[in-house]
Every structure is written in C-alpha cells, then in structure tokens.
Design brief:
Layout: H1 2-35, H2 39-61, H3 65-72, H4 80-87, E1 89-93, E2 106-113, E3 116-123, H5 129-134, H6 142-157, E4 162-168, H7 175-179, H8 182-193, E5 200-209, H9 210-214, E6 221-225, E7 229-231, H10 235-242, H11 249-256, H12 260-266, E8 271-273, H13 284-303, H14 307-319
Parallel strand pairs: 3-4, 4-5, 5-6, 5-7, 6-8
Antiparallel strand pairs: 1-2, 2-3
Helix pairs in contact: 1-2, 3-11, 4-13, 6-8, 10-11
Length: 330
C-alpha cells in the first residue's frame, strides 16, 4: 500500500511540474507578444507557442480520472447559454413550471439549429458569485425539472427534436426541494423522456451528477465531451460513503470509471466529443464547432428514423445498461 501511495504521489508531482512548465511558457509567450515587432522576437514567439501547444496536448492526453473531474468543473468551461450563442439562432427562453416558480439552474426554450426548429434544455451554472447564487450553482430544484418537462412536452406536441446539455453536481439536496417532491419530479422526467415521440440528443458538457443529470439525459444519443465525467455520485461523495474520508476522492474517481473513455467502453455514452487542446474552457467557439459536427450528424440520422423504431431503440438502450448475475443458478 505504501509503495502504491508513493507512486501516486510521484505521479501527482510530475503532473504538477508539467503544469508549472506550461504556465511558465505561457507567461513567456505573453511577454514576447508584448515585445514583438522585430523578426527575432516573432520567431521566438512562434517557437514557444508551438512548444506550449505540444506540452498542453500531451498534458491533457494523460490526465487521470480525478484530474479530468477538475477540468470538467473548471469555472471557464462553456455552459448551456454559451453553446446556445454559438450554435443556435432565434432562441426564445421559456420560464417557470406553471406550478411554483422559475428555476434558473435550468435553461429551457425553443430555437433553430441549422434552420431546423428544436427545443433546448440544459443546466446553467454561473461565472461569478452573484451568478452562481442566482443559478443555485447549477443544482436544480423540482420546479426546474418540471419546467424542463413542460418544454419537452411542448416540443413533442409540435414535432421538434430536443437537445439537452448536462452539467450539474446533482439535484439540489435541500429540505425545501424535498418538500416539493424532488424525487417525484426526477422520476417523472425519466418516465416521460423515455416515451417522447421526437428525437432526443443529450450531451454531458461538464459534470454529470446522479439523478440530477439523468433527469434531462434520457436520449436516443448520449454524448460526452472529452474531459467531462458522468457518475451516480461525486467522487467526494463516494469516498465519504465508502471510506468515510472525502480526501480519498481521487481513489474513488479511478474506481468509479467516470471518464469519457470508461463510459464509452461500458456503453453508457454513445460518442466522445473531442475538445480543443487544453480543454473546452480555453476556446468556447472551437468546442462548439467540434460539438456541432456531432449534433448535426446525429439529428439528421434520428430525424429519418420512424418514431416507433426510435422509441423501441431508446427503451432498449437504457434497459440493457449494467451487468446482472443470477446467483441462484451459479
């Protein structure tokens, strides 16, 4: 055990050192850009820029599960409204669940995607403290899920495909949310999304946490950005339950198989969407372009599929997830 811990500490130190080298080189690039004007400075600037790009590419290629979880939570990562700005036109946000309130942790509305009318839903976090408080840190309450369902049912009524963006720690666990039926709201969304007669494309863009994510993630296609993760509980929460020690989150992250590659191998997601070098937080527009290629291709294919086949395939997709053993006959 001590040997493994020493090896892990050594790897962590190596990761930290690499990150420091990249940050130092980025500062050099900024300084040279400020001083650029003569030929020698321009050549040096280009050389260091290429070196930084190569180091960043190598660094992000070899990130472990816990490191990827940190990237998925980066505060500058693109959120739902960022993707809306880059990929959609004529967006009209709809508010409220017509029962209690408008939950700003979930954005929902109608828009056009490549000229096709669609419905949009997604979690929305905030960039600064004021926004994060207003958005409840991207943790929806029951009214948020009911708002999302209202918009999805509206989409089904008018035959609009649904595009969903997932990025939340999980549903809000407060007592007020429980009093208003948090579990029921999530369960209802799961049931209704399974039988909505329109194509549904889901993309995990940051962290996909538990039922709070799954409540808007029952789709015909489920994608995940390269550095995102999707799990039944956060690594910290898992560590607190299994080892009663949240500091073992890194160990939990590895054991839980939460990365995009693991999820693809397990059949939880259908496609991994590549990110720009250095992660989606470094270039929102490039991240949107990479996602655009996947969304467009999948929507065209799903829109040409008969509704009965679409619903049967969606049902089977989620029914066959997981592994089951009959101990009685073993």
């Amino acid at each position: 055990m001590r040997t493994k811990e020493k090896e892990k500490d050594k790897l962590d130190k190596q990761q930290t050192e690499r990150q420091k080298v990249i940050e130092h080189l980025e500062k050099d690039v900024d300084e040279l850009r400020r001083l650029s004007g003569d030929g020698d400075a321009d050549l040096e600037l280009e050389r260091i820029r290429k070196q930084v790009a190569e180091l960043r590419r190598e660094f992000y290629t070899h990130l472990g599960p816990w490191q990827r979880a940190q990237v998925a939570r980066h505060q500058q990562r693109p959120y739902t409204l960022d993707f809306v700005n880059f990929l959609f036109t004529d967006f009209m946000e709809l508010h409220g669940d017509r029962g209690f309130a408008d939950d700003k942790a979930i954005v929902a509305g109608l828009a056009k995607y490549h000229g096709r009318p669609v419905a949009l839903i997604g979690h929305q976090k905030g960039r600064d403290t004021k926004q994060r408080l207003a958005r409840n840190f991207g943790q929806p309450k029951p009214e948020g899920y009911r708002k999302a369902l209202r918009v999805m049912q509206l989409a089904a009524k008018f035959g609009r495909p649904i595009i969903s963006f997932v990025d939340t720690q999980g549903a809000y666990p407060g007592i007020d949310a429980e009093e208003r039926g948090q579990g029921e709201a999530i369960a209802r969304n799961l049931r209704e999304m399974a039988r909505l007669p329109v194509p549904i494309v889901v993309t995990v863009t940051g962290e996909g946490g538990s039922g709070g994510a799954l409540a808007i993630a029952v789709g015909d296609k489920v994608n995940i950005l390269e550095n995102s993760f999707y799990s039944v509980i956060s690594p910290e929460g898992c560590a607190s339950i299994i080892w009663r020690d949240s500091t073992k989150a890194e160990t939990a992250a590895a054991a839980m198989k939460i990365t995009a590659k693991d999820l693809k191998e397990l059949g939880i997601v259908d496609e991994i969407v590549p990110e720009p070098d250095g992660g989606a937080h470094t270039d929102h527009e490039a991240a949107a372009r990479l996602l655009d290629e996947v969304l467009d291709r999948q929507l065209v294919a799903l829109s040409n599929q008969p509704i009965r086949e679409l619903l049967d395939a969606r049902y089977e997709k989620f029914r066959k997830m997981g592994q089951f053993f009959d101990l009685a006959n073993s």
